[in-house]
Amino acid sequence: EELIERSMAPIKKEFLCPPPPSSGLVQEKKSKRQLKRERREQSTINLCPQVARTEDVDSCQYKDKCRFNHDIEAFKAQKADDIEGQCPFCAYGLSCRFLGSHRKEKSEMNFFNKETQRLLWKNKMTFTNADAKLKSLGLEVRPMKKAKDSSLKLHPREKKKLIDFRDKLYLAPLTTVGNLPFRRLCKVLGADVTCGEMAMCTNLLQGQASEWALLRRHSSEDLFGVQICGSYPDTVSRVVELIDRECTVDFIDINMGCPIDMVVNKSAGSALLNKPLRMKNIVEVSSSIVETPITIKVRTAFFEGKNRIDSLIADIGNWGATAVTIHGRSRQQRYSKSADWDYIYQCTKNATTNLQVIGNGDVYSYLDWNKHKSDCPELSSCMIARGALIKPWIFTEIKEQRHWDITSGERLNIMKDFVRFGLQHWGSDTKGVETTRHFLLEWLSYTFRYIPVGLLDVIPQQINWRPPSYFGRDDLETLMMSESAGDWVRISEMLLGKVPEGFTFAPKHKSNAYDRAENG
């Protein structure tokens, strides 16, 4: 009881002892400039993708003007050793790190249309519906040049006017780790609803391919939405119209709760909580110009102790939103205290019948899920964020109503699935392998916090518990619970081969802190 009072995990005594010394990579942290210079000095030969696929140096249309190398023999001489195993997907030919049997598979959608990108770059994209609605409401419409006649390739899809979130397991949109391979993994483990990583409206309107990549969808994501973030009605509504035109999605979520300074300083995210009229205009315009359902995600308030969603909840449904997700913390609070579920219940009971309310915050076991659904039957569902990052099998636990005492071998198989999905998504050449490794390491910087059920005196583990020094039931389990980035790298080498010379890793979210704002 004393341990739990201090948010310390009650580990069984037989597992309490100093952990084995880490054999991880202890290296001096280098600046981005140093790392970039070192990569440049390594001067790896980048073989032309077309030449790699065809093994014909004359197949490249750019010939001598191509920015890639066409020397096949020189590339083979310096190419890293192949990784054992079968290639999960290949369009990379000689560049593939699994050069063997290749299997082609096309299971993703929402690829960025090059013609659309060209129009966005030249500021010639038209937004007929959004601009007409903005003008009818007397809202500012910043002028854009009219587009010349162009035939944009529209993706065939069935527009869905209704979407039902009730009792569905909803994986939250998650920064960095909530990528397409991780979402595929969560679908395998039982997630019902998935949503892409938050994309900034201004970047989408500028035609940034990296931002449009966040809207990519896998065919297994049968109930899928994208999340966008913007400051003004014209910006957001134009993006909504563009996504509805170009992508296949089941709903579009507008982020009005992101607490990160970079977003708030642009008057977006949780900054909108201080501007309820602008919130209304954004939702009203966006929902009126497309048939795709519009949802929003909010926090309780901007400032701690000044909750305001309860005063807006009755109107949000009338603005045109299909659902609202309430994260039970203020922007100022971030993760310093537990989520306020009593306030979420209060807001849910004040909502109109046409608005679905989804609760968010600290769901980490099937008991948490059951309690929230039992305490407030009006609640449509619960969104799961950090709980899924730490143990993505939480979806299996909820559906099977059990505490899964998962073994280290089972966890390793889940990681193997992620790696396979990553190589299919990012590619099986050297760049794809290292991108997969990077995102695997980002995920490992969360999942090491999981404490196996069999090691606890009290179950289930709470999301804010910190463990004392302890070890696992086998060497692999002990390795998986290590806080050392060097040990995470060792796990990645078990799945993706040796890291390149000079490799270093520092998690984007600084995983030594349990209460970061990124996944708000």
Textual characterization of the structure:
The structure is a single chain. With 520 residues, the protein is of the alpha/beta class. Among the domains are: 114-142 and 161-400, TIM Barrel (Alpha-Beta Barrel); 407-496, no CATH class. 37% of the residues lie in helices and 8% in strands. It contains 21 helices and 11 strands. The chain has helices at residues 2-5, 32-42, 49-54, 72-78, 114-121, 128-136, 180-188, 201-205, 209-212, 233-246, 261-264, 276-289, 309-319, 341-350, 366-375, 386-390, 394-400, 408-426, 430-447, 475-480, 485-496, and strands spanning 108-109, 170-171, 194-195, 199-200, 217-218, 224-229, 251-256, 294-299, 323-327, 356-360, 381-384. The strands form 2 sheets. Strands 2, 3, 4, 6, 7, 8, 9, 10 and 11 form a 9-stranded parallel beta sheet that branches. A two-stranded antiparallel sheet has the order 1-5. The protein is globular and about 70 Å long. The two termini are 30 Å apart. 44% of the residues are buried.
Short description:
The protein is α/β, with parallel strands linked by helices and about 525 residues long. The chain is built from 21 helices and eleven strands.
Could you tell me the number of beta strands?
Answer: 11
- The span between the termini is 30 Å
CATH architecture of one domain: Alpha-Beta Barrel
By CATH reckoning, the class of one domain would read Alpha Beta
The whole-angstrom Rg is 24 Å
- The rough form would be described as globular
What percentage of amino acids are in beta strands? 5-15%
Please state the average pLDDT score. Answer: 86
> Structural class, judged by helices and strands?
alpha/beta
- What is the CATH fold-level name of one domain? TIM Barrel
Q: Which consecutive residue ranges, at least 5 long each, have pLDDT under 50?
A: 145-160, 511-520
User: By CATH's scheme, which homologous superfamily of one domain applies?
Assistant: Aldolase class I
Biggest sheet layout: 9 strands, parallel
